[in-house]
Structure prediction request, 105 residues.
Amino acid sequence: MIKAILILIIKCYWLIIPRSSRRKCLFKVSCSHYVYQQTKINGHAGLRALLFRIKNCNPSYQIIDLGDEKILVTKTNKVFSEKELNKLILNPPNAPEKTKAPKQC
Prediction:
């Protein structure tokens, strides 16, 4: 029963809220798609996936550049690697270009 309700809510969300109006997700797989997949595969465990994403997918995060990779740290101190994250979060289209400092002799 929970599985059917959760899937119905997600499908209604997809129909009612246009993609252009949705908040950009931190992850490659959006929160709604992730919860939908988890619900279809694992039934009511999709509810746990929803709670996890709500807890960790919010504006309170830090992106740390490690040189060869970027990581995202959430307010709950969960760490996500660059390959799990949406490219728009790592390189926003309106972000100023980073310039390298000139080499000093």
Q: What stands out?
A: Residues 6 and 55 are 18 Å apart (CA to CA). Residues 2-16 form the longest helix (15 residues). Residues 96-103 have pLDDT under 50 and may be disordered.
